[in-house]
Amino acid sequence: MTKELLLAAMAPHVLANGLATASLRPLAKAAGTSDRMLIYHFGSKEELVAALLDYLAQGFSDGLDASRPTEPARSRAECLAQIVPLIRRPELAGHLRIWFEAVSHAKAGEPNYAKAVHEIQGYFLNWVRLRLPVDDPDPEAATALILTILDGIEMLDATGHSATADQAVALFAQISDGSSGSIS
Amino acid sequence: MTKELLLAAMAPHVLANGLATASLRPLAKAAGTSDRMLIYHFGSKEELVAALLDYLAQGFSDGLDASRPTEPARSRAECLAQIVPLIRRPELAGHLRIWFEAVSHAKAGEPNYAKAVHEIQGYFLNWVRLRLPVDDPDPEAATALILTILDGIEMLDATGHSATADQAVALFAQISDGSSGSIS
DNA sequence: ACCTTCTTGTAGCGACTGCTACAATCGGGG
DNA sequence: CCCCGATTGTAGCAGTCGCTACAAGAAGGT
Question: Smallest CA–CA separation between B151 and chain A, in Å?
Answer without folding.
Answer: 4
